[in-house]
Specification:
Blueprint: H1 2-26, H2 30-41, E1 51-57, E2 61-67, E3 72-79, E4 87-91
Antiparallel strand pairs: 1-2, 2-3, 3-4
């Protein structure tokens, strides 16, 4: 009986991980892109016009190549906790 409980628990953990991974890769990421553009612009101010030229999405992070009037940078955005929580972005 104990072995069956752990098998069911392991199955539920695998299904939860798979669901979170699919959500992180295929959900709408417009808000994350805005955060990445803000990070890319940095101190350039509101007149900064950032354009994404490349995007890579994994279950654990999103990476963007963003061109601004002054530079082109890679910005990596990750969640606060392993696969859940709010995104934060920083220039690499």
């Amino acid at each position: 009986m104990k072995g069956r409980f752990f098998s069911v628990l392991f199955l539920l953990l695998c299904l939860t991980f798979t669901g979170l991974a699919l959500y992180n890769v295929y959900s709408d990421n417009a808000a994350v892109l805005r955060l990445a553009e803000e990070a890319a612009c940095g101190s350039q101010g509101k007149q900064c016009s950032a354009r994404m030229s490349r995007m890579e999405r994994t279950p654990f992070s999103q990476t963007f190549e963003i061109a601004t009037p002054k530079r082109t940078v890679d910005v990596r955005c990750v969640r606060a906790f392993y696969m859940v929580g709010e995104y934060s972005c920083k220039v690499e």
